[in-house]
Amino acid sequence: MKAKLLLFFIVISGPILGQKELKKELFPIGETQTGFRKQFVYKRQLIDNPLALQIPLLEAQDPVVSREFLIYKRQQSNIKWISGLTALLSFYTLLNKDAVSDGFYWSVVGGSAVANLYFGSVSVRHFRRALNRYNELANDGSKMSFKYSTDDRFGSSVGLVWHYKF
Fold first, then answer.
1. In a domain, 29, yes or no
2. What three-state secondary structure class fits 23?
3. Strands 29-34 and 155-163
4. At what angle do helices 102-139 and 63-95 cross, to 10 degrees?
5. 4-50: per-residue pLDDT in tens?
């Protein structure tokens, strides 16, 4: 009776205890730049907008990648709000020329330009961190690089080095 109960327990719990979490395959994200235009390459597709990389970046399920990308996304949203409010002020000033003084108008436009430059530069830095961390995870620590070394007996040598994490 005990043997049948033990066998029953092993048969029932075997598939449950034998499950292991499968690591999702991550594909690296490359960058190409032509002039002032920057594009990203993901799974052999060109992507123009960095916000379109939200799905692959968040699928990495890494807290650093998620935090940095969500900070980038929030700051891009702030840039849109500041630009929208400045556009509304400009439109209101166009309709009612005497309602807004020149000094106030130009100080708001200049202040919003400075704020947009600040948020833009900081948000790009956060996106860079998220992208670099994601590519580290996608490459799984393996890197290929050129190495130059000198030796007393053999002289100078150049070689291809492959660092692979086992």
1. no
2. coil
3. unpaired
4. 160
5. 776 666 767 655 555 555 567 888 999 998 888 899 999 989 999 99
Residue 17, CB-side half-sphere exposure with 13 Å CA sphere: 6
The C-alpha atoms of residue 58 and residue 45 are separated, in whole angstroms, by: 18
Q: pLDDT tens across 41-89, in order?
A: 999 899 999 999 999 999 999 999 999 999 999 999 999 999 999 999 9
Domain range for residue 88?
Answer: 64-141
Token output for 41: 């390459």
C-beta atoms surrounding 32 within 10 Å:
10
pTM of the predicted model as reported, rounded to 2 decimal places: 0.70
CB 69 within 8 A of CB 78: no
Residue 52 included in any domain: no
